[in-house]
Amino acid sequence: MAYAFDPSRAAELERVQGIEATWDTCTIGLLESLGPGQGGSFLEVGAGAGSIARWAVGRVGASGEVVATDLDTRFLQNLPPGVTVLRHDIRTDPLPADRYDLVHARLVLSHLPERDAALATAAAACRPGGVVLIEEFDESDTFGGSLHRPRVNSAEAEAILLRAWPAVGVFVASLGYDATYGHRLADSLADCGLTDVTVTRTVAVLRGATPQARAYRNSVAHLGLRMIEHGFLSAERLDPVLTLLDDPGFSMATPVLVSAMGRRPVQADSARRAGRRFMGTAAGPG
Questions:
Q1: Cβ(11)–Cβ(219) below 8 Å
Q2: Cα–Cα distance, 93 to 99 (Å, whole number)
Q3: Is the pTM of the predicted complex or chain greater than 0.70?
Q4: Distance (Å, rounded) from C-alpha 259 to C-alpha 30?
Q5: Computed over its alpha carbons, how large is the radius of gyration of the chain?
Q6: Where residue 9 falls among pLDDT bands split at 50, 70, 90?
Q7: Is-cis flag, bond preceding 36, omega within 30?
Q8: DSSP element (H, E) containing 132
Q9: Interval 187-244: pLDDT, tens
Q10: Using the 8-state DSSP alphabet, how is residue 76 labeled?
């Protein structure tokens, strides 16, 4: 599997920080409701540029533990004292078992063909009684349907996007990306033995020419060049999409971010069950 985004690219930090700017309000709101408190322990798998690890170290205090992992840690070099940065491959490298009060990963597992095994490793690192929070997109409904809202602010813009998006979907799938993994997250957490599984769904609105849209443009431009090179897409279909993302008058709803959380049973022999309650869609940051 060839990961779609190369951390050595000059623009990669901007892309990662744009993801953080788009989703941190949602993620931190959920994490604050889960803990940990002072003296607690927190594991962030795929820490990106470290925004969630920065939040966590303020939460657990000097007596707590925060571990931030990533395949490439170049964007994690300036985190505050109290954060342990670990270069780590969740697919193959072990983690200490029964260690952390709260384990979190966002937009990581969907890129991994070994996602179920990686999730099991992350879940096993959570202590009995602790909580695992995993966040992934469900892109099965990107252009309409269950949310009953327009995905873009004009029919012309939607037509431009739809001329390119099917090819994008085929290309990223060829790299091992599962665009609908979020749809299965609740079942996947239950399969790992977690209980009291809860799911929330959030949509953010990207407005053209904002930092969030520029980060999204960065992703599309990088993927688009590779797609043109391999014959998946033409420049004539890609360039209008990039123009839209540069337009302050353009707005676009993101795919649904599914945030699924479950608790590690205190009893090791607890039945593998999950009580699931599905909460409604919330509007994310604009």
A1: no
A2: 16
A3: yes
A4: 9
A5: 19
A6: low
A7: yes
A8: strand 126-138
A9: 999 999 999 999 999 999 999 999 899 888 998 999 999 999 999 999 999 999 999 9
A10: G
Per the structure block, which two tokens stand in for 134? 């995993």
- In whole angstroms, what is the distance from residue 126 CA to residue 103 CA? 6
Instruction: Find where tokens 């029919």 sit.
Output: 155
DSSP for 47-85 reads -TTSHHHHHHHHHH-TTSEEEEEES--GGGTTPPTTEEE
Q: What confidence score (pLDDT) does residue 95 get?
A: 97
Question: What's the helix, strand, coil split of the chain in %, to 5?
Answer: 40, 25, 40
pLDDT at residue 259 is higher than 80: yes
Distance of CA 134 to the CA centre of its chain: 8
Please name the residue that has the structure tokens 């009580």. Answer: 275
| Sheet with strand 126-138: strands edge to edge | 83-87, 65-70, 41-45, 100-106, 126-138, 256-263, 195-203, 277-283
145-160 burial: b if 16+ Cβ within 10 Å, else e: eeeeeebbbeeebbeb
Backbone angles phi, psi at 21, to 5 degrees: -65, -30
Q: Which residues pair with 206 in a beta bridge?
A: 252
* DSSP secondary structure code for residue 206 in this structure: E
Nearest to 50 by CA among 97, 118, 106, 132: 106
Given the structure tokens 């909580």, which residue do they identify?
A: 131
Residue entry with tokens 């996947």: 188
CA distance 215 to 155: 23
